[in-house]
Write a structure and sequence with these properties.
It contains two helices and four strands. The chain is an alpha+beta fold. The longest helix is centred in the N-terminal third of the chain and has 14 residues, at about 5-20. The strands form two sheets. The chain has a two-stranded antiparallel sheet with strand order 1-2.
Length: about 80
């Protein structure tokens, strides 16, 4: 499963406390938003987690394409890649 918006926020906040701000260049996050909650989901308390979240260093991970069924990314070989 993917991360909810709240989980993404918490991950970013925690990461920003741990990184070296002199060398940090950013992250790329791609994912699917939560679907709108229907009346019945609200009444019965049924919610779905997002399907997928892709996270990586901005200089090594580029989002190429995203639609309802697929997230396509390119991993760019570079510093730290093996």
């Amino acid at each position: 499963h993917g991360l909810t918006a709240n989980e993404q926020t918490q991950l970013i906040e925690h990461t920003m406390k741990e990184i070296n701000h002199d060398t940090f260049i950013g992250i790329e996050i791609g994912g699917y938003e939560n679907e709108k909650i229907s009346f019945f989901q609200r009444v019965f308390g049924v919610t779905k987690k997002p399907r997928m979240t892709v996270i990586g260093p901005a200089h090594l991970l580029k989002m190429v394409h995203k639609d309802n069924d697929m997230i396509q990314t390119t991993i760019i070989p570079g510093k730290g890649a093996s």
